What does this fold into?
Amino acid sequence: MDTERSTTKDTAAEDTGPETMHAVRLHAFGEPEQLVYEEVPRPEPGPGEVLVRVHAAGVNPPDWYARRGFENLPVELRPDWKPPLVLGSDISGTVVALGEGVTDWEPGDEVFGLVNFPGRAAGYAEYAVSPADHLARKPAGLGHVEAAAVPMAGLTAHQLVFRHLAGSPGDTVLVNGAAGGVGHFAAQLAKVAGARQVIGVASGRHGRFLTDLGVDRFVDYTRTPAEEVVRDADLLIDTVGGPDAHRLLPTVRRGGRIAPVFLGDYHREHAAALGITLNERPWQVRSSGADLAELAALLDSGRVRVGIDSVYPLRRAADAHRRAEQGHLQGKIVLRVTA
It folds into this structure.
């Protein structure tokens, strides 16, 4: 490392910013009004970490699960988190300071990432600390709001399609909940991976959106249930789950696979009798700057696009959570932290 770079990093490791910042903290488990915009101490990076000035933060299902104390998860799977908490794992922003040992980033670098997942992060804030290897360079063609919409949903779909469920080109892939955060990325990435046909299931208002993203066939479940009109899918990526998930078994061929993103009742014994392979648990995404860099390249090339449902200023995080609870999202919800 040359002298100029070393000097820059030594200076950046010092406290060069304010001692406090604004963040949204959860003071008690419950409804969205428990999310309070307030002034809190600014964090500092430790060894192997960087401090990021957050420009935008993504809103994800684990955020509202945490807000409610993970009451939707089985007791044995609930993290032992206690308020006050700053939620949020998806960030896009600018590196402002480096912890000891960090050599891959410089102050001023524009980055985005899924921070410390499935552990705790604190992205609903003006500054956030991240392990250096959880970040990737922000795609040049995306603004921070768009970039913040990518990490958790995009990485879930990317890791699911390219690592865990790498099938042969020519597969027919059915994506249930195709207009949502994970779904709209999964539909596009299945095409990138070589799927012969991608079928997207969503409500009617999302038809044009999904067609524009390259979905070959659209099923409006409000008019016709997918299980009545889809047969012989090689792979079902189900981003909905729930107690009625088993209704989709007829859509999958014998020898096909089901990849759940959320918990669902798929009547495992019946699925096995039909020759359908079912993942033991929903897919668990992991923070990975390397995987995110691969996804960033696809975003920069235009082969994958980002859908934005709505954008809220940081101080209105509670409203963002209320929008999330309404469901039927088209893409992602994002908090704008800086103008």
Observations:
- The first strand starts at residue 20 and ends at 26.
